[in-house]
Amino acid sequence: MHFDVIVIGSGAGGGTLAHRLAPSGKRILILERGDYVPREAENWSTRAVNVEGRYQTREVWRSGDGTALHPHTNYGVGGNTKFYGAALFRLREEDFRELRHHGGISPAWPVSYSDLEPYYTEAEHLYQVHGERGEDPTEPPASAGYRFPAVSHEPRIQQLSDDWGRAGCKPFHVPLGVMLDESDRRRSRCIRCATCDGHPCLVSGKSDAQVVCVDPALEHPNVTLLTGAYVSRLETSASGREITRVLVERNGARETYTADIVVVSAGAINSAALLLRSASDRHPGGLANGSGVVGRHYMGHINSVLMALSRCPNPTVFQKTLALNDFYFGSKEWPYPMGHISFVGKLDGVTLSAGAPKLAPGWTLDLMGKHSLDFWLTSEDLPDPESRVTLDRDGGIVLTYRPNNGEGHQRLTRRLEGLMQQQSRCAVHGHECHQGLFSRNLFIGQQIPLAGVAHQNGTVRFGTDPTTSALDVNCRAHQVDNLYVVDGSFFPSSGAVNPALTIMANALRVGDRILERLGARRQVAAELTVGAGA
Ligand SMILES: Cc1cc2nc3c(=O)[nH]c(=O)nc-3n(C[C@H](O)[C@H](O)[C@H](O)COP(=O)(O)OP(=O)(O)OC[C@H]3O[C@@H](n4cnc5c(N)ncnc54)[C@H](O)[C@@H]3O)c2cc1C
Ligand code: SF4
Hints:
The chain is of the alpha/beta class. The protein has a single domain, classed as FAD/NAD(P)-binding domain (3-Layer(bba) Sandwich). It is built from twelve helices and 19 strands. The chain has helices spanning 12-21, 46-51, 113-126, 155-166, 209-218, 268-277, 349-352, 365-371, 406-421, 430-439, 500-518, 521-533, and strands at 2-8, 28-31, 61-63, 68-69, 99-101, 104-106, 172-173, 223-226, 229-236, 243-250, 253-264, 302-309, 322-323, 340-343, 372-379, 388-391, 397-400, 443-447, 483-485. Helix 1 (12-21) runs parallel beside helix 5 (209-218), helix 1 (12-21) runs parallel beside helix 11 and helix 3 packs across helix 11 (500-518).
């Protein structure tokens, strides 16, 4: 069957792109290897999701030394956005330029922040981001405000925010893609529950790519979605200049599809693997890999979860509302970037039992979960050609990673420790609790291991030079005219904020280039204008 565009993968990149292309009337096929995530009570069970890994792929990869790797990633309609925490950040303006880190250089992007800015605004509106401009000292300029107010802090988090403010910092509200209406909780789609980050949303209140993009795109009769459709290989014409066949394994059978344009959006690791798997006489090192960069420069962020325990409980339900970027670019004493401090969803004893920290003396896991503030620290992972995706003899994924830039991350951790020591007295439990908070704080550091590929990016980088990049500035392959890659792969550097909004914004940008190529840009622009006014 022939289509105008085939989109491989339906996550932040593919789902958003399909939504952009849908009103064009062009025949669009979305090929998604997973199925819809079932709506069931287990969506919100920490045991089912975090301990049993109910929705995670069972695929086994290998790490560079050959050991089995069970990747924490999800295959389904909406991709990993079904499970994300929906913290939707713009990269900082400086992230698009070359930045010197303690561990090396973060390279410049071939586009500037201002090139992406209009699409960031569009993506924020599309994904219904709730936020507050002007609080975050590193926030880049924006052409429009958020359409929805920031999600409020619960009392314990507000107390921490006030403490950090008194300590001279500038804490801010995390921009969040949850459909929460705090002025009308009865009608609000999002009910502000404790199981958002890492879980699918049972009531479709999270702005994920399935709910926001794929489902609306499928209302257009010209858009088709095939689930359970694993794309195994892309084949080209004899010249190697265009893709002529997309090979799919579905329901135990092999199928072939063709399209004028093929967009790979399988996530940074799977997209690189697909291109490598599609090697041919014309592309011996992998499809579109004349530069040799496909699969290289894998980045995943340097992340840690740090639990700050106090004798005072933390009854917060929805914890991921507060963040701190004061150390993002460094400090007076340390002139190198350190990163970003925010929260994970509230941990509980059940979640802690899965690969958990050692018990703090005198505490049970359950008690720890009830008393912890659960921080998520992110530092920039620098691109290293030796951190890479390759294939084993059977075509399986091998992920090799060389840790880097650790000093900035350690200093960020120490900064957090310092700030926690300065907290004010707890108003609820008086002096005794205040003592506990300061004198009995315990920090359990746990840097996210290699299997934690949630923030994967960088493996099919874009650039102006075909000898050092696989994609041009519009994310079209330098060597294959009708091939685009639109997911986290294109990042030349990773910044230190969560990646999804940048992937979405870029998908809208590349979508416009594809619409121009199809001669359909004006028509879609007109429909979007009508839609916005409605
Ligand atoms: C628990 C968790 C929490 C997160 N929290 C945040 C957050 O708060 N903020 C944020 O910005 N980011 C967050 N992320 C990261 C975010 O989800 C990803 O950055 C984003 O989804 C990546 O988009 P993508 O398009 O590159 O890939 P994905 O969204 O992973 O989509 C890739 C799609 O391709 C499909 N696919 C793969 N291979 C094939 C194939 N061969 N054939 C057909 N289909 C294929 C997959 O099934 C998948 O649907 C989180 C991720 C996780 C796992
Ligand atoms: S109801 Fe709200 S907080 Fe709960 S999972 Fe859904 S979007 Fe997240």
